[in-house]
Amino acid sequence: MSQQNVEVVREVIALMNGQDGELEPRLLDLFAPEVQVDMSRRLLHPDVYQGHPGLHRLRREVPEVWEGFLLTPERIMDAGESVMVIDAQRVSTSAAGGAVERRSAVIWTVRGGRVIRVEVGLDPQEALERVRLREFL
Q1: Which carries the bigger pLDDT value, residue 2 or residue 90?
Q2: With left for phi above 0 and alpha for psi between -120 and 50, is residue 72 left, alpha or beta?
Q3: What is the per-residue pLDDT for 99?
Q4: Using CA atoms, how far apart are residues 75 and 24, in angstroms rounded to an integer?
Q5: N or C: which end of the chain has fewer CB within 10 A?
Q6: How many Cβ atoms sit within 10 Å of the Cβ of residue 123?
Q7: DSSP characters over the chain
Q8: Whole-prediction pTM value?
Q9: At residue 65, what are phi and psi to the nearest 5 degrees?
Q10: 19 Cβ contact list (under 8 Å, min separation 6)
Q11: Distance from the Cα of residue 6 to its chain's centroid
Q12: How many Å separate Cα 16 from the centre of its chain?
């Protein structure tokens, strides 16, 4: 089942990177109705988004803050029910004075083929410890 979780996360990232406008139905299919997206660690507009209405709100807010946003996974690690992604984020915003690149970790929790929780903006080492992937430290 855990390799399937990795594939779910890969598909979500690909769909998110290709988004212009409204959320694709397939993207919503990959998120459980009760999904929680914890972006409380991000610098601009920290928040926690609840359920599909939260995903729609997040989608509306992204263009208000970011002129461009691209997730580039450097490493995707299977941790059973969790999938840990270390990614390089390249964002463009006038508030930050141009393009900003940042490396961070995201922990995705997948159950029954659907994402139920996403924790964004973690320090990669902290995330590795949280999902007990110490062999990568």
Answers
A1: 2
A2: beta
A3: 66
A4: 25
A5: C
A6: 12
A7: -HHHHHHHHHHHHHHHHT--SSPPHHHHHHEEEEEEEEETTSSSS-EEEEHHHHHHHHHHHHHHH-SEEEEEEEEEEEETTEEEEEEEEEEEETTTTEEEEEEEEEEEEEETTEEEEEEEEE-HHHHHHHTT-GGG-
A8: 0.85
A9: -105, -45
A10: 27, 59
A11: 13
A12: 9
The arithmetic mean of pLDDT across residues 2-26, rounded, is 87
Number of Cβ within a 10 Å radius of residue 105: 23
Q: What is the pLDDT of residue 6?
A: 95
Dig out the tokens for 42 from the structure.
């991000």
What is the predicted pLDDT for the residue at 31? 97
The confidence score (pLDDT) of residue 134 equals 47
